[in-house]
Sequence to fold (249 residues):
Amino acid sequence: MESKLLLSIYVLWLREMKRLIRSKSRFVSSLAMPLMFLIFLGSGFKGVQFQGVTSYIDFLTPGIAGMAVIFSSTFAGLSVLWDREFGFLKEIAVAPVSNVAVICGRIAGSATTSVFQAMAILILSVPLGFSPATTGIVASLPFIVLMAITFTGMGLFFAALIRDFHGFGLVINFVIFPLFFLSGAVFPISNLPSVVLPVAYLNPLFYGVDGLRAVLLKNSVLPAWFDLVASLIFSVVTVIVGAKAFDRL
Fold:
């Protein structure tokens, strides 16, 4: 039974990987906006220092990596809408595959894509002046994976609620940008009005970005272990919520 479950997850993960390989232009274009943020903000605010980080590009890069993850992961819900439109979900429904395998396969595929994109951002930022800790990029993987799982679960949730392609894009953008700007990605959350701070601390992206800064720069608001635990909790909660919503598709 377990081998069948793992095989089902692997097949669905492999499907997502083949889609990624066959549409390289989509992968490259999805890096365009994060890279533009990184280049233009990094050069435009070159002299700005936050949280004791001497270079703004160092402060900004973990936030832009988080940006790449949240965009890639939440828009994975769009592929669910396409699959529903073209009948792939109906084929899965009649196949001897459990919903657990379907959800895990989709999350694994989306998380893998998001990891590739975030790692590409971190690597491409080095020539721009980013100076991570020696083991920082490897140590960042758990945070990137947990962020990807969290926001894939969120994408599945919205895909279950919204049946229209255009409506999905509008709602996701309406959700993503507040989460991005309240995460401390481009400026510390301590600069936010005190009335907004509780909302920022309820933002899962904040813990992911702060965790990346902890392992990449050895400079963060919270300890790395706390960010990791918080990211793990958020990932479990959003996957459960997304899975329950996915059952309604």
Summary: The chain has one domain: 2-246.
